[in-house]
Give the backbone structure.
Amino acid sequence: MTNALVQNHGFLDEKSYPLEIIDAPAFSPPPSPQITPAGQDPSPAPSELYSMTPQSEMYSGNKTYHSPTISATHILYPSPPPSPPPTPDLPPEALVDLALVRLRDAGIELIEWRATVYRRMNVPVIVKDFSFALPDDSLDTASSVLESMGLPRTIPSTLITKTLGELATQAIWHSLSPEPRSIVLYPLSFLCIPPGDLLPSTWHTHEDWTGVRVAEGQDEMKPIPIRVPHPRAVYAAVVRMIVDYPRARTALQADLGMLIMYHLFGFSLQDSGQLDSEEDEEQEAGERRAVVSLIRDWKRVSKADDQWIWDALIDIATGKQRIETIGRRLAGAKRSAIIQSC
C-alpha cells in the first residue's frame, strides 16, 4: 500500500516534493499507531494520526529520504484523495458539446444566451465564450457537473470584468483551458425571460463528433436539446439590462446595435452601408416601416410593464433616439417597472 506524508494537511510524496534519495542501511522506524487498513474509512480519527518530530530525514525500507525544508508536524494518511478526472483532449467546441451531453444526462436543460443566440439571429459575431442560462436552483449542480469533467471554475480577468461589468460578475465561469475560452452560466433571473418565451431547439454542435463519441463510449450521438429565447425576448432582456446594469451598459448597447442592424434590418457584412440612389432610400424607408410594424406586433403581445421597451426600440429604428441614450434617459424613470416586470 502506498502511503503519503501530509504537511499542514497537504500531501507530500516523491512526485510532488523534491526529495533526494540515497542508499542507506536497512532501518526500522520507531513504533507508531496502527494506520487505517485499506478498504476502511481513509480519514482516521485525531487520536489515530501519526505524528513525527520535525527532522530532516525520513526512512522507508532501506532508503533514506532527505528533505531540506520539513519543519512541521506530519500526519500519515493511508493514501491521497482521488484527483479530478483529466479534461478530454478535445477542441473547445467539442468540449462544450460533451458538457451539454453530461448536463442533459443530469436532467439539466440549458438556455442559449449572447453569442450563440446572436448567431441564430444572423449577427456575424465570433463565439469566444459559450454563454448559457438555467434556472437559479440548478446553477450549483450544473457547475459541479462541469467541475467533475475537469473544467474548473475560474474568475474572469480584470479586463473582462471592466468590459462586461455585471455580465461578468453575475455569472459562473468555467475554463476551457488551455485556450482562453470559457463556459459561462447565468441564473435565469438575471435575464428576466419568462418561460413562455423559451423555445425548444437543438444545440448547434461541433462539426466533428468523433472525440465526443469516443469520450462517451457511443457509436452515435443523440441531438442535444436546448432552449432558445424568442427574438422578442432577446430584445426585451437586452434593453432591460441596459437600464438595470450600468456597468454592463456599454457592452449591451453594442449587442443591441448589432441585433438591430443585422437581425431587424437584415444587413450583412457585404453591405456598404451607404445609399447610392433615391431607389435605395425608398428601399430603406420600406425596411424601416417593416421593422416598426414587427416591433409593434411584439408590443401588442407583451405585458403592460414592458411597453416602454418597444417604444424605445421604435424610437431607435426611426432615428428619434440613439442607442447610447437608452440607459441615461430611462434608468431613473423605468427602474420600478423593470423590477415589477421580472
